[in-house]
Amino acid sequence: AVDSEPPLSLLLETAKNVKSKVKAGSSVVFWMRMGDLRSFADNRALSLASAHAKKADVPLVVLFVLSPQDYKAHDRSPRRIDFTLRNLALIKMSLEEKHIPLHTITEPTRRVIPQKVVSFLEHLDALAIYANIEYEVDELRRDTQICKAAQAKGIGAVFAHDKCVVEPGAVLTKESKTYAVYTPYQKSWLKILNSNIPHFLENCPEPHPNSELVHTMPKFKVLFDTPVPESVLGFELDAADRRKMEESQVTLSKILQRFLHTKSRSSQLSAVDPLAAGAVDSAKQSRIAVYDAERDRADKDTTSRLSPYLAAGVISARSCVRATMPDTQNGAKRVDGGRWIQEIAWRDFYVCILAGYPRGPALEDAYGEGQGRSNPKAELPLATVESNIEKWKTGQTGFPIVDAGMRCLNEMGYLHNRARMICAMFLVKDLMVDWRIGEKHFMEKLIDGDLASNNGGWQWCASTGVDSCPYFRIFNPHNQSSKADPTGDFIRHFVPELRSVRGPDLHNPSASVADKLGYPRPIVKHEESRARAMRRFKDPGSP
Ligand code: FAD
After folding, report:
1. I need a surface site. Which of 127, 130, 258, 534 has the fewest CB within 10 A?
2. In sequence order, what are the residues at sequence separation of 6 or more whose Cβ sits closer than 8 angstroms to the Cβ of residue 329?
């Protein structure tokens, strides 16, 4: 059934009417989700829940629901799930120091999660449940259901905006609509941040500790005793794989400091261990200072590498912005709106699109509404050749930059932004494959997989949806390669067959070089596939 009201408004409206019990209850519950894995720093719903628990003089309990079915439905990658569990285990330990239990429920059937959560609240005689909003439509509907069930039981329900710096709905067009174009959105976004409304950049306080007595109460004691599972879908990553993206707060703060303050190395392969890159620094400026000029270099280590932490909510987007804010003379602080901050705004923008166009062309399919697509450009006749898709996924296309990107994705679960764009555009425009196949594949591989950003990135490359790249902009993989990887370090690292190649041949190896080194010949001729894409975008009926 399709709701008449947008799912986000419905949730906020329903939550407004849910009142907490008047009679005494015995706890307040914070429901931590996959995107807000922070127990101390700057978690809005957690802070609110803690303040409520303190005022009512009852223990605070943290709940996490693991749902294998949900992870499959969202194409969550093993790396992202593993990263979640590793962070949860740390969070459980750190909360215990404050006598706050973290309890995980593993629920195989997604549909029954609301029931399970409400039974848990009843069991704990909870005054209220608090959570940060997840903007995906299924999640909004689930939470609306929970609100209604909580209301029937006299349990309060509070859902807070936390994922974005500026929450969806806070900046709107003159017609009070969600922005569909990034540039004006970003201007309004910056304006509101600098309008001294403390809410957007507030640093939400840490939770208060529970009384030690909580350990003596059987109902709560058992919650401390339940461990966080080490695996939910039967896979386990090896230690080497885990080291590529460590879960500790110490690592995270090193990564942030390294980006903001440490001097940048002149050349460093970005796709390899991000922390090793901090070891030697030779250039004069910090990474953020050279970000504008060098962020498109896949062969350098110039971007922040914070996306896995931001996607999991291990760090808040607010605190990333705060960390960049210079003091002005009178002590007031301003967001400078530099290039890196604009990328954080892109992240917010895509969440706004997700929340604001629940059944619009941009995200209709990602929502699984099954209503068909209303964007005519998406009706292009495709050339889905299964063997080409497989070659793209495994990095065997014969286009070195695409192959390096796809192999990097497989090996690291992370990919530089420019390389994501090159790989995505190659799939949709050179191979004429449905962008949703690529979107799903990225989600299944990325440690930072996020529906809003991934869908937004894919639709940009596919020239569908809102504010996307014009259809006639078709990357030439060879030219892109020499711009994104001028040293060739990125390709040589991930495509070992080409390690001995120097100069322009690396970006476009001749047939004889490819054959000699055992590297595949190109699976398409770019000029021909470019011409085909142009023809079909102009006239979907053309060959
Ligand atoms: P930085 O350049 O340091 O940027 C800082 C932060 O800003 C990032 O961590 C990220 O949170 C945000 N950001 C940067 N660029 C973008 C962007 N274009 N769109 C939205 N947010 C951005 N990002 C994800 O977090 N998850 C995804 O699933 C995802 N899928 C993508 C798929 C495609 C096809 C494309 C083209 C881009 C995708 N991105 C995604 C955006 C971007 O590639 C990554 O956020 C970025 O590469 C992460 O590296 P970083 O942390 O060093 O970024």
Report:
1. 534
2. none
